[in-house]
Amino acid sequence: MATVMAFTSPAAEFPLGSVFENLPGVTVELERLIPHETLIVPYFWVRGVETEDIEAAFDPHEGVTDIRLVDSIEDEYLMRAEWKQAYFGVLSALAKANVVVLTGIGTKDEWRFEVRGESQEAIAEFREDCQDNDIPIEITAVHAMLPIQGEGYELTDTQREALVLAYERGYFDTPREASLEEIAEELGITQQSLSSRLRRGHRRLIGGTLASLA
């Protein structure tokens, strides 16, 4: 059965965390992860800062071979990085175990990840690799991924919880009766984490309903 795990990791332990030394107020959110032969290529957003040279904000790291800007929208930057699989870290362990990153959000305090493995064994392999290679992670939740009623929806529990609470609090009403900040506080997560869960939940719902009928 597919299993979802949430965990945290110190900001400095993750290669992209070097940006927090130069820009402590930014938030970094992984967009997608592409393992490719000897390289791992993550796309990610950098938010909360305006700078003329966002690439220079990332200090060199032994595992990272290239970081480049793909696009920018006001103070949000879509970026692409490459690093060698020979450098074994969190993303390398995820790629090796074929574990999918659902959310990955970093601040100067820590990184918060939510990942999904096709089986409990995949999650166990990831945890063992982290332990064997002294990769510091703190597991905060592990649970089976259960679909809500309706074939093809396959929402995670956290996505369903966020969507239902946002609906109940009137976040989707016009005018809104609750803000993203209020709902995130009630769930005990950051606004960025809530925004990511809502966005991914919407995508899954649309994929399982409207898109499947097109």
UniProtKB/TrEMBL annotation:
- UniProt domain HTH bat-type: residue ranges: 155-206
InterPro entries assigned: BAT_GAF/HTH-assoc, HTH_bacterioopsin, RNA_pol_sigma_r3/r4-like, WH-like_DNA-bd_sf
Annotated ranges, domain Bacterioopsin transcriptional activator GAF and HTH associated: 25-143
SUPFAM superfamilies in the record? Sigma3 and sigma4 domains of RNA polymerase sigma factors
DNA repair as a keyword? Answer: no
Q: Which UniProt keywords apply?
A: Transcription, Transcription regulation
Q: Which PANTHER family match?
A: DIMETHYL SULFOXIDE REDUCTASE TRANSCRIPTIONAL ACTIVATOR (PTHR34236)
Name of this protein:
Helix-turn-helix domain-containing protein
Which organism does this sequence originate in?
Answer: Halorientalis brevis
